[in-house]
Design goal:
With 419 residues, this protein is α+β, with helices and mostly antiparallel strands. The protein has two domains: 33-66 and 272-417, Cell Division Protein Zipa, Chain: A, CATH 3.30.1400.10; 99-252, no CATH class. It contains eleven helices and 17 strands. A six-stranded antiparallel sheet has the order 13-14-15-16-12-17. A five-stranded antiparallel sheet has the order 7-6-8-5-11. A two-stranded antiparallel ribbon has the order 1-2. It is elongated.
Amino acid sequence: MIVLVVGAAFILVVLAYNIYQESQYRKQLREQFGHANKDALLDSQVSSVRDGTQTQSVLNEKTVPPENEADNAAGSSVEQAESVVIGEEAVPEASDVQIQEPEENSAEPLMPEADEDALPASLSVHSDMEPLSRTVPVKGRKTLLDVRDMSRQTLPWFDVRFDYLAYIALYEPKELHAMPRLSSRSRFRLVGCTMDGRYQIAEPIPSVYYQGFVVGLQAISRSGLLTYEELVHFGEQANRFAEQMDGQLLLTDINTFLNVARPLDELCARVDQTIAIHLVSRTNVSGTELRAAIEKQGFELGHDGAFYYVDSNGEPLFSIVTLDNTPFTSTLLANKNYRGFSMLFDIVHIPDGEKCFDQFMDMAVKLSSQLSLDLVNDKVEELSTEWLREVRRYVVDRQKEMKQVELKPGSELTKRLFS
């Protein structure tokens, strides 16, 4: 009896110690992940790529908008001449009448007249600014192009839903000696019309003369939508460029542009999310073994310290990073042990989300098996079949929203918008 009692006590001690070790293991992993948001898709926060912020997304019927909501959110494409419905007010499509046109004898600036009551105090100063000198025709001179005709051109380099456009018609043919300095937190493109009437990306090439330019400022990116004040500042810079080139300037109406861009920006913030699945070890796995298994699946180590799996066109589909977001390096992989890694699925940049997600999970399962790693979420809970079904549905729904407004996941247009 004494032996039985001692044996039972010993077994209880061992079980208690194992439970303690398990809790410490989970606590250590949570600290190593370096973030506190919950599981990426089940009644929790989802990691939003935009500007390093977190966006709340709950997987229920409210997460998926009605089928017509996404259509109304960003308006029609450039080729369509329909109206964008924002609330109960219909706004003309950007490619239709959103450009303020100059009158031949008008002395008024083309910048929209700001309603001081409707704008923040910091912006009301712009309502009193002097007319931009190149927004009105110069009496007795005729430009080589009509800026109003230029604004009606459909140019493949721009999308009027998120590119704020400035049109410049020159009075005399000019070479572009240097690219203009249009400082902004967003990128811009400069397209020129050559003397034979062809539009092309403008470059400072000797003996190439232009008769007009179109400057497009990308107003939406992963940093968010540009403000009214930033667009006004861009207009001032475009005006200085027009003065340097001796041309007449026509600016897109800012208020109308923002009415179209804001709903699209809201949709972008909603769909711009990355799904993370963590593969963790209960002990350690050597960096050499980890790298061999990852590269066996077709991943390659990039210059930024992450592994990437690319498609047949060389475009990255999936990525692998460390649990604590430190970079992988060849030296560290050869000499260090790791507790695991995270696999990332960027919804907006991956075409055919359902098929690619199946491939993504297949790779995760193979790596888990080869390296004896556990597949867990941010709460260090093992992934279930139900979880995977919810994730797949979530990916499909977000990409469906994008397609409804003609943003094809993984396309060049989408890559530019989610840059």
